[in-house]
């Protein structure tokens, strides 16, 4: 049984930073790409960032490119999302997700490709 547990959300002023963490368990973490998605109130869940199984390939939504950094530690079974220069429009519940297919070189932006999801961590950016 795969479990993903996010942490690190909170309230921050615009321009500030937060670092989200997601610890995975239940299968070989290092074999799977990981993704971060977010869902703002009244909106659909959207892709934020993805990282390949080895960490050599990363991909970002245009809205966060240059501000967010996704990384992973395959020893600690953890994926991170460093969020800098936060804006009020970044306010959302952030979810980490694990790919349904192993050894994907290019992380998918499609939520349907991810089989496992965390419970989410809320990020609120005040103006």
Characterization of the model:
The protein is mainly beta. It is built from no helices and 11 strands. A hairpin with a 4-residue loop joins β7 and β8. The N and C termini lie far apart (40 Å).
Short description:
With 127 residues, the protein is an all-beta fold. It has no helices and 11 strands.
Features:
mainly beta; seven-stranded mixed sheet; 11 strands; four-stranded antiparallel sheet; single chain; 127 residues
Mean pLDDT: 96
How much of the sequence lies in strands comes to over 45%
Q: How far apart are the first and last residues' alpha carbons, in Å? A: 40 Å
Radius of gyration: 13 Å
Helix content: under 10%
Number of helices: 0
In the predicted model, the low-confidence regions spanning at least 5 consecutive residues are: none
Number of strands: 11
Largest sheet: 7 strands, mixed
- The shape is globular
How would you spell out the order of helices and strands?
EEEEEEEEEEE
List the helices and strands and how they pair.
Blueprint: E1 3-7, E2 10-13, E3 18-25, E4 32-39, E5 46-51, E6 58-60, E7 68-73, E8 78-83, E9 92-102, E10 114-117, E11 121-126
Parallel strand pairs: 2-11
Antiparallel strand pairs: 1-3, 3-8, 4-5, 4-9, 5-6, 7-8, 9-10, 9-11
């Amino acid at each position: 049984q795969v479990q993903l547990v996010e942490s690190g959300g909170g309230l921050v002023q615009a321009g500030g930073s937060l670092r989200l963490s997601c610890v995975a368990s239940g299968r070989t973490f290092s074999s799977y790409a990981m993704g971060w998605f977010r869902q703002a109130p009244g909106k659909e869940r959207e892709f934020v960032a993805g990282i390949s199984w080895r960490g050599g390939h990363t991909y970002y939504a245009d809205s966060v490119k240059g501000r967010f950094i996704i990384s992973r530690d395959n020893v600690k079974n953890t994926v991170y999302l460093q969020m800098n220069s936060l804006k009020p429009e970044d306010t959302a519940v952030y979810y980490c997700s694990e790919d349904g297919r192993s050894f994907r070189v290019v992380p998918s932006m499609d939520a349907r490709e991810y089989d496992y999801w965390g419970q989410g961590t809320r990020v609120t950016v005040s103006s």
